[in-house]
Amino acid sequence: MKFLFNIYAPLPLTYLARLVSALLIGCLVVSLTHATERKLDPADAGNPIKLDLQMGLDVWQLSTPDRTTSVLKGVDRLYLADSYTTWTYRNPAPWVKTTGEWDINSQLNLTYKARADQSMGAKVDDFNLDYRLSPKLGFRTGVLDYKTSWCRTYEIDSPWIYQIDPFCSNRITNESTLASPGVQAYVNFTPGDYLIQALVGIYRPKVFGYNKEEFSNVANTKGVAVNDRWGWSINALNLNSASELRLSWLGARQENNRDSGGYRSQNAGALYAGGSFFLTEKLNLRATIFHSLVRQNSYDTPPTYTKILETNMVRVSKTLEAIYQHDAQNTLGIAASRYTNNWGLTGMNGYEPYTNPNYYLFTQSASSVTWRHNWSEGIHSSIQWTQSKNDQLLGNTAAKAKGTALGFRIGYTY
To answer: Which residues pair with 256 in a beta bridge?
Structure first.
């Protein structure tokens, strides 16, 4: 108990309140699960409720440059465990995740995913109703996954403590690739040995106040007035080998508030592709690529709205991961990633000197290894080592940074 007190005593009240709220939700999940297990009789067997809860504690030993002397925010952009946290960075850091699914009837299904941790804060990543009009056609509405990432965030057997793809682990980068209130329509079909699902979706991140600030990762201090998104996704699963292919696209039209002193409008498009293959019964290989392009127009203060700059921002993330499940207790993983972020500026109306096709060039690469061991009674531990480095060029200023992170996790899954 003294150990737990030493961990939680320094935390601010707001952090504790958020964590306690998440833990209460987790306790409710456990209670509902017990109730379901006790009360479900054969007549209700067609309406199962499936719930799981994960919680634990992460400890990191970080070796990075001094923030006070680093140039161009090189430390933050190493994308290690302390980069751009929503809550004040704490070490050790508790976390909780929960997922659930309720088959209300043969055609209607409710699912949710929620988490609380210092990187992302308290967040609902999925909460939707799925209506299957027929075995081949269905509709979803609620908070929906864009299907433009393939992160292991909610996998109960994932060996990773912290994924090295910035589009999975960093809130600044991945906000626009995870989920939003919206509507999806999908079709399923099974040609030969494959199960294929294709979907189209329309999304509105600002609805219900779900995400009022997301602006495709471009700094925006004026408030978001418009954020309309749409996209499609195709997923193919081999029913014999469990090999899987994913291809998706996500578009956006966004504007900030004109009446707040300045105006920007932008169009964004992101293409995602990934493949997962079992090289042996125990060895899985996964490769992904994410390519995002944001085209932005900036304007003078009201009322003239004179265009002065055009910006092109291209972000690309490539990952390669191998996971080997040695036995039921031990899983090993190794991964490498490369992330680039390049900006080009075009000036006009007196701002021509600002034209620079390579205004900002950024390259970050990382590699990581991990080992997870499953103990008894739902308890597991993981140890992970990561190294990261970057090269940056902003105008005429160049900088480099590198660092390492050694992490340990103790977790519990119900």
So the answer is: 224
| pLDDT value at residue 228 | 92
Q: What angle do CA 407, 20, 177 make, to 5 degrees?
A: 60
Element (H, E) at 172: helix 171-174
67-120 pLDDT per residue, tens: 767 776 666 778 888 788 888 888 899 999 999 999 999 899 999 999 999 988
CATH class of 2-413: mainly beta
Quote the CA–CA distance of 72 and 387 in Å, as a whole number: 19
Dihedral sign computed on CA atoms, order 152, 126, 175, 236: positive
C-alpha distances (whole Å) from 380 to each of 117, 119, 159, 374 are 18, 21, 10, 4
CB 110 within 8 A of CB 33: no
Phi, psi angle pair for 15, to nearest 5°: -65, -45
pTM score, whole prediction: 0.82
Domains in the chain: boundaries: 2-413
Distance separating alpha carbons of residues 44 and 395, to the nearest angstrom: 65
Tokens 């219900």 correspond to 208
